[in-house]
Design brief:
The protein is of the alpha+beta class. Helices cover 19% and strands 22% of the residues. It contains three helices and eight strands. Strand 1 and strand 2 form a beta hairpin. The longest helix has 17 residues.
Length: 181
């Protein structure tokens, strides 16, 4: 019994020390399929439970399938989740109240897009290409890329300061891992 108690404590210590988990929670993992491959996303309900629930709800209805990645700024972020591709569209669900946190907008962070109203997030989100401190505590972070960031790096970039993409790449699918066979 002592051996297992020690062994279990050693595993917990290793996980805490490395910041890694040995098994992802399929209910809080997303598979984002892009033209260049799969991106695995760890959702963070501990940071933004309402936003995570919204993404899962929309993903489960197929809302994100074939939506354009309409705004992409090199070194900054790739924005998606608007079926109209204009940046002003969303779902039929009501907007969400903000769930700001102290997490940082680092490379691979997923955060909700919104208007100037902090309580206007709906379906659009963005993936960070690099660290952007000016977004910290201003947008609701709900996840992070754990695998496949190299595929995000290959998304077609937009032109100009606003990063609007002509003939944009598209989300092939966005699925909750628990729902994938």
């Amino acid at each position: 019994m002592r051996f297992w108690r020690f062994f279990g404590a050693a595993i917990v210590a290793l996980v805490l020390w490395t910041g890694q988990s040995f098994a992802a929670d399929p209910e809080n993992t997303l598979y984002l399929e892009l033209k260049d491959g799969r991106v695995v996303i760890e959702m963070r309900p501990d940071l933004a439970p309402r936003h995570v629930e919204r993404i899962k709800t929309l993903a489960r209805t197929g809302f994100y399938e074939n939506t354009p990645i309409h705004r992409v700024i090199d070194g900054f972020m790739a924005q998606m989740g608007d079926p109209s591709g204009t940046g002003s569209g969303g779902s039929d669900l009501p907007d969400l109240r903000s769930e700001f946190s102290n997490e940082k907008h680092e490379r691979g962070t997923l955060s909700m897009a919104r208007t100037s109203d902090p309580n206007s997030a709906n379906s659009q989100f963005f993936i960070m290409f690099g660290r952007t401190p000016s977004l910290d505590s201003q947008y609701s972070i709900w996840g992070r890329v754990t695998e496949g960031m190299e595929h995000v790096d290959k998304i077609k970039r937009g032109a100009g300061r606003n990063g609007i993409v002509r003939e944009p790449d598209r989300i092939i699918s966005l699925k909750v891992a628990a729902d994938v066979d």
